[in-house]
Amino acid sequence: VLREVAGAVVGREPDTIALITHPRLLAWYGRPVVDALASAGLKATVVTVPPGERSKSLASAGRVLAELASGGFTRGGVILALGGGVIGDLAGFAAAVYHRGARFMQIPTTLLAQVDASVGGKVGVDLKAGKNLVGAFLQPLAVFADTETLATLPRRHLRNGVAEALKHGFILRAGFVDRLLQSRRRVEARDASVLAELVAESVEMKAQVVAEDERDLSGSRARLNFGHTVGHAIEAALGYRKLLHGEAVSIGMVAEARVASRLGLCPRHVPEVVERALEEYSLPVTLPPDLGPEQLVRLMRADKKTEGGKLSMALPREVGSAELVKGLEPDVVRQVLREMSRHA
Amino acid sequence: VLREVAGAVVGREPDTIALITHPRLLAWYGRPVVDALASAGLKATVVTVPPGERSKSLASAGRVLAELASGGFTRGGVILALGGGVIGDLAGFAAAVYHRGARFMQIPTTLLAQVDASVGGKVGVDLKAGKNLVGAFLQPLAVFADTETLATLPRRHLRNGVAEALKHGFILRAGFVDRLLQSRRRVEARDASVLAELVAESVEMKAQVVAEDERDLSGSRARLNFGHTVGHAIEAALGYRKLLHGEAVSIGMVAEARVASRLGLCPRHVPEVVERALEEYSLPVTLPPDLGPEQLVRLMRADKKTEGGKLSMALPREVGSAELVKGLEPDVVRQVLREMSRHA
Fold it and tell me: Is the Cβ of A135 closer than 8 Å to some Cβ of chain B?
């Protein structure tokens, strides 16, 4: 897939090109793309940022934008975002605001970014007050997900992506959950063709939801937040350390499926199926020891989606179906979380 | 007009409100608005920034965004931008990217912002590499131009706004130029009703051009850049000091009208009418002594709108009509600028 990037870029007839990536990814995957573009007569402005969530800041965006300007990048140009979710969000935001809007393409190199983050057009950076508080909606011209780049991805990061892929199955298509479980060994062995099928189906599901509600207004897109109300609170409580995003969402999905079941919004087997599937992939399903239910509920209430002390969650109705539920009493959530800490 | 702001805000049913302004404007005009909102049960988060172009930076936007977050401002909220062009551009940019897009209203307090900057939805901040290099398109929900706020505006800043108003006449409506010249004394005496008519007609003309080509793609909106190719180069050469924006544009309009006349694109009387009208308002029509034609042409070539060493300009065809012309030879521009420095 990476070999197709240069051709696709040339086809868009950009005035200028920029590649935004991490230093190591530049050496591994970026150089061949830059060289192929050079052969086609297009010189790319290369901008590298350090790996890690700290690069997803306004300060970092400012440095990227300044390097784009000094490299002569134009508003008619195309930015290539080569990396995981941080690079995609940062480079996409830079594209959204450079000269009031350039274009970009995603080349995601983690499973999480391939199945989820690179699709949907949400781009942005963090503030100290919270993640993704600054940003824009900008659809990439194209997404090039090459599952061969996953060969070097640590197993824990592979499972991190599986968590979001399973989520798409839980909320949209029960059969996809089954397929993921049946092909677990080949996924964990990084079989490129099995991974390619997994990524393709996951992206197709997410793209359909996004197409229905691009700007996140009707509640349809909000279904993608299954596991994220609790998951975000866990991440914030841990200072975005210790757990990866997909791991926090994994615990969050178990918690939220139990909330749904307790409220009678879904049958009892739903939280069981969710939990078993995540455990099959060795994803965490219990609260980390130091996190108290009180602290988590407080963080959920401070979240941008809260209204009047009540909570909002995307809750399952069945395996393969979900809906946004507003006005949830914190008490039910508190009880479920208490139960999940005792199990830990 | 200021008395109508609170009611208009309440009518939009925002979750939260923020007011972004300078400390002095907060005391003069902001407090009554904040108090009126408080009476209606809406508490505004007030964010102040120092006056001056330096506040139009990404660092400044970052501070504003952090204060919005800590003040509990929400994506369903409305930002009020109270001030001149810097405040409008900065607050509008903050609105465009906060939680991927909040809404805003403009309350321009300079003539330049009332006749020009507050209309059209171009918002953004500067980079060290150049002005307005980072930004977005976001139309304000409403613009409240109260000409009574101009009572405290220094005369030089009043004329600064007249330059852009005259520009609208030069490119769109010759009769408006005549009306501005006939009412010069009352404009300079800050007659609020004459100013209100001037602002209303100027805004109506600009809004029509913007509606035709909101994203600046067809060349129609680019007509608003009359005087700005040369004007921006003059501002950059002076390090954005000494001349106000409208003053640099005034010199730029004389230069560009002469370029058009020399190329046979407009009759000879056009540059004469342009120059005489600007002089009537004591606006500068000759190059500042230290600026060389060579330096200015170099800066124009480095501008984001250049293609292959040739220049683009919005040039008059008649008084009241203009068009975007691309591929201009720098030589003609150099000759005109040389002539204008000898006159100085």
Answer: yes
Contact call for residues A51 and A87 (beta carbons, < 8 A): no
A304 and B74 within 8 Å at the Cβ level: the answer is yes
pLDDT at B344: 46
B143-152 residue pLDDT tens: 999 999 999 8
Max distance between CA atoms of chain A, in angstroms, equals: 62
Among candidates A296, A204, A288, which has minimal Cα distance to A259? Answer: A296
pLDDT, one tens digit per residue, over B6-58 is 999 999 999 999 999 999 999 999 999 999 999 999 999 999 999 999 999 99
Q: Report the phi/psi class of residue B100: left, alpha or beta, with left for phi > 0 and alpha for psi in -120 to 50.
A: left
Judging contacts by C-beta atoms under 8 Å, the chain A residues touching residue B89 are none
The SS3 call for residue A238 is: coil
Quick one: average pLDDT of A11-35? 95
Do residues A307 and A326 touch, judged by C-beta distance below 8 A?
yes
Contact B134 A65 (CB under 8 A): yes
Minimal Cα distance from A132: which residue of B? Answer: B99
pLDDT at A280 over 90: yes
Task: Tell me the pLDDT of chain A averaged across its residues.
Answer: 94
* CB-CB under 8 Å, A101 with B69: no
The CA-atom distances, in angstroms, between A278 and each of A117, A195, A285, B73 are 20, 17, 7, 36
pTM, two decimals, is 0.93
Which secondary-structure segment (H or E) carries A230?
helix A228-237
Q: List alpha helices for chain B, DSSP H.
A: 2-11, 23-25, 31-39, 58-70, 85-97, 111-112, 155-172, 174-182, 184-188, 192-212, 228-237, 245-262, 269-280, 293-302, 330-343
B333: Cα within 13 Å, side-chain hemisphere: 28
Contact A98 B136 (CB under 8 A): no
Q: Is the Cβ of A196 closer than 8 Å to some Cβ of chain B?
A: no
Compute the nearest-CA separation of B128 from chain A (Å).
7
Is the CA virtual torsion A36, A42, A43, A49 positive or negative?
A: negative
d(CA A321, CA B314): 56
Distance from A98 to chain B by nearest Cα, in Å? 5
- Partners of B304 on chain A (C-beta within 8 Å) are 74-75, 99
End-to-end CA distance of chain B: 43
The percentage of chain B sitting over the pLDDT mark of 70, rounded to a whole number, equals 98
Choose, out of A75, A89, A133, A214, the residue to mutate when testing the contact with B (most B CBs < 10 Å).
A133
Provide the 3-class DSSP secondary structure of residue B154: coil
The residue among B134, B139, B210, B326 with the most chain A CBs within 10 A of its CB, best to mutate, is B134
Rounded Cα distance between A94 and B127, Å, is 13
CA-to-CA separations, A92 to A14, B56, B109, in angstroms, rounded: 16, 22, 35
| Distance of alpha carbon A73 from alpha carbon B26, whole angstroms | 39
